[in-house]
Amino acid sequence: MNGEDKVKLIINLLKEINTTLKSVESILGRLEAAQGLNLRPTDNLYADLPLDVVTLLSLPDHLRKTAIVLSKKGEATAKEIAEETGKARAVESSYLNQLCTMNFVNKKRVGRAVYFYVKQ
Questions:
Q1: pTM of the entire predicted model
Q2: What are phi and psi of 106, to 5 degrees?
Q3: Tens digits of per-residue pLDDT, 82-116?
Q4: Domain 53-118 maps to which CATH number in 1.10.10.10, 2.60.40.10, 3.90.1010.10, 1.10.287.3610?
C-alpha cells in the first residue's frame, strides 16, 4: 500500500467515524427527549482557562501541562509552576520561555523574580 492509498484509507475511516458519531448524537438526543434527561456533560474542564481547548491540544504534552497550571494560577514564577508539576524549576522556566516565544504567555520582572502570565 503506497502513501496515497494510506491517506485515502485514513480519510474513509474518519468519514465512517464521523457518520457513527452523528448517529450516536441522534440516538442520544432521542433518549434525552424520551426520558426528559440531559445526558450530555454540562461542564467544560477548560472553560475557566484563558487558553482555549484547541490551543491547549495543539501544544506538546510537556508544554500543555505547564500552560494549564499557569492558566489556573493566573500569574506565577517558574518555581511555583514547578511545585505544581513536580518538575525542576529550570525545566519549567524553559517551558515557560518556550510558551513566551510562541506568544501564548507574557512575563514581567518584579525585582529578581520573573512572573509569567497568560495573554488575555
A1: 0.58
A2: -115, 165
A3: 999 999 999 999 999 999 988 889 999 999 999 99
A4: 1.10.10.10
